[in-house]
Design a protein that fits this description.
4-stranded antiparallel β-sheet, binds calcium ion, mainly beta
Length: 403
């Protein structure tokens, strides 16, 4: 039965995706001008050329054995930042709640409601930054000061990777310590913009080959083989995972291709993170049956010992799952925002998501229709949603977020 149902669902999804893709109405490109970044205004005030020159070869920047990711204040604990109709809100982790000092609204000179937000440590200073991809295919970046997103260097970042309609993902694909951007597109494959610290156009930027990735699949990123360079992968409708290992110049290094999985069912929400703390990024799929299907990376497959269903103290289907190392112990955890604007945490023990400290966390921010950047998977999921009208409006399938 299951085998019958799955292809049918998948086929109709693909069909609807194809049918919808050509028709995506641009959300009123002219109606909403790019915010004028009065404060930073660096677009033309050229980025320091020295940064660019020293970037690729100079220093093989130290590769942290583990970085929490989504750590906006640089204290080694992952936080939550939300893109809201009223600007950017930070919910900083204290290790036991999302209400550490400096939580609340953060100023930034970017982000119109309707643009696609994402996050990464784009200047490599240890504090996660924010960015949006706008309707002109431009990347606007807000560098974190630790309490705002308007550090020097914020503004428009040039890149050959920008393309509206693509899905932006971040990762340090060349392993230089600065997160780069990857845009997964329907017609143009993968475009990578390598960060110089002031732009996404370092040498090597452009189209990258990969054995993995069709538009109808769900992409995610992480350092799956643990060599210090982030890789990309897709989950396809057959429950297969295909991996593109980064060589630093393409996603076609040895070791890529189809990887065995423990169980990665299509129809769930894939999230990546280092759930057992061995420095190799793993995959978890949250399913409509409220199961957490953990697929641990061995470096060459996603079925390392310890893979399987993990118990969790949190997570009901319909809530919005995110991943990050919220208590800073080196293992990625899960956090879910529910319809009551509550955060529920499942902290990783290395074998389950119910370690001590799990449960409801108080938070200074996070309302149901806000967009938590950790849930980048949300966008990846959305582009397959049958009722989507475009990438942005897809989010309004969330209960109660309709227009
Ligand atoms: Ca933090
Ligand atoms: Ca990089
Ligand atoms: Ca890698
Ligand atoms: Ca943790």
């Amino acid at each position: 039965m299951k085998n019958l149902v799955r292809p049918l669902v998948a086929i109709s999804l693909v069909f609807l995706t194809l049918a919808g893709c050509g028709l995506l109405p641009q959300p009123a490109p002219t109606a909403a001008p790019q915010p004028t970044a009065t404060e930073s205004a660096p677009p033309t005030a050229a980025p320091e050329p020295t940064t660019e020159e020293s970037a690729p070869t100079a220093e093989p920047a130290p590769v942290a054995p583990f970085h929490a990711g989504f750590d906006y204040n640089g204290d080694a604990r992952s936080d939550i930042v939300l893109f809201t109709k009223n600007g950017w809100q930070a919910a900083l982790s204290s290790g036991a709640g999302f209400d550490a000092p400096s939580s609340g609204p953060w100023t930034a000179n970017l982000g119109m409601w309707g643009e696609i937000p994402f996050a990464g440590d784009f200047d490599g200073d240890g504090k996660t930054d924010i960015a949006v991809l706008n309707w002109n295919g431009e990347f606007w970046v807000g560098l974190s000061t630790g309490s705002s997103f308007d550090a020097e260097g914020s503004g428009l970042w040039a890149s050959p990777a920008g393309l509206w309609g693509g899905i932006p993902l971040s990762g340090d694909f060349d392993g230089d310590g600065r997160d780069d951007v990857l845009v997964f597109t329907e017609k143009d494959g993968l475009r990578v913009g390598l960060s110089t610290g002031r732009s996404f156009d370092a040498p090597g930027s452009g189209r990258w080959n990969t054995p993995a990735g069709l538009w109808s699949e769900q992409p995610f990123t992480g350092d799956f083989n643990g060599d210090g360079k982030d890789d990309m992968a897709v989950l396809n409708w057959q429950g297969q995972v295909w991996v593109g290992i980064s060589s630093g110049a393409a996603f076609d290094a040895a070791g890529g291709g189809q990887w065995a999985v423990k169980e990665a069912p299509w129809g769930g929400m894939p999230l990546s993170g280092d759930f057992n703390g061995d420095s190799k990024t793993d995959l978890v799929v949250f399913t409509p049956e409220n199961k957490w299907k953990v697929n641990l990376s061995s470096g060459t497959s996603f079925d390392a010992e310890g893979s399987g269903d993990w118990n969790s103290a949190a997570g009901l289907w319909g809530e919005l799952p995110t991943a990050g190392d919220f208590n800073g112990d080196g293992r990625a955890d899960i956090a879910l925002l529910n319809g009551n604007s509550e955060w529920w945490l499942g902290l990783s023990s290395g074998a389950s998501f119910d370690a001590s400290g799990s449960g409801r966390w108080q938070s200074a921010a996070g309302a149901w229709c806000d967009v938590p950047l950790n849930a980048a998977d949300f966008w990846r999921f959305d582009h397959l949603t049958p009722n989507m009208q475009n990438l942005w409006e897809g989010r309004f399938r969330l209960s109660g977020c309709g227009q």
